[in-house]
Amino acid sequence: MAYWRTCRMGEKTMPRDRETELPRYAAPGRPLGAYPRLRARRNRRAGWTRALVAESRLGPQDFIWPLFVVDGEGVSQPVPSMPGVCRWSVELLVERVREAGDAGIPAVALFPYVDPALKTHDGEHALDPENVVCRAIRAVKAAAPEMGVVCDVALDPFTTHGQDGIVRDGQILNDETVHVLCEQARVQVEAGCDVIAPSDMMDGRVGAIRDTLDAAGHEDASILAYSAKYASAFYGPFRDAVGSAGALGAADKKTYQMDPANTEEALREIAADLAEGADMVMVKPGLPYLDVIRRVKERFGVPTVAYNVSGEYSMLKAAGGRGWLDYDLVLLESLMAFKRAGADAILTYAAMEACELLAEG
Ligand code: PBG
Asked: How many domains is the chain built from?
């Protein structure tokens, strides 16, 4: 006997379709769950029900906080194109990292502002274990050993031309650059860096770095590959912060960073980096590339990190500062968009602000 015939209450009261004898709600052509029985607004009617049915959640554990470090003591230099962001000298940076730990942020990403006097054509200072980023890594790990430390591998903060690699006759040389990046990665891991993040977009660098780290006994050091990194104008304020903007001048990075027109290529880059040993992959910039994040997550199902880059941060700050947008609300909405798109973690300069807003509820 059909299931509906066993339902005695229904037997008596349920209006039936003449032809099929089915209860009318199940009759052909009458979709289940249609208005007026279904009212989508019921699940939206109060904060508690919205909280129960939310598909994505945002919290301090989602964030990696990028911080800029500079030589000196007691130095906090505001970055004009990134309101609210400073370059910190090492001991002040450590204070920021402690605050991040208290807020529940699991990891920070450290970026150096290198004294122009220490920059060279080939960026050798990147390999100096006493450079400012290595000193910062050591200080952070000593003060907050449970905090994850992520560091870029790329030469741009250290080169006089602001390119990420070794330049000869106007060309960025791939294999020569990879060789140097391997050493930079090793030096940073030996200073205590937990996660090496190659942001240079040279071919083959993930595998070469993995081999170098393994050969040096650093099998536990992770690699977060900037796999799908686009040649983007949204990096402008970051280049001010690390002091590579002036060095780069009118030049661009289009011969190694990706063309914003491409997504299939991003998937190939991700596949290559995973095959070479990347533990996590990154899509960058973030908000204009949410489609790429979604495709990466669906295709590979691997830890996928989004970089909410400097220009994205500054856009919201600028509009918020003029009263054109409610900064707090658009910030949380933007960060949630990353989670909805499938990102597991988000690098964002607004990590601490977001933690405060989320704690306020
Ligand atoms: C350096 C690097 C850049 C960013 C992260 N690492 C800039 C660039 O490639 O020119 C950008 C981060 C941001 O804009 O917030 N290779």
From this structure: 2
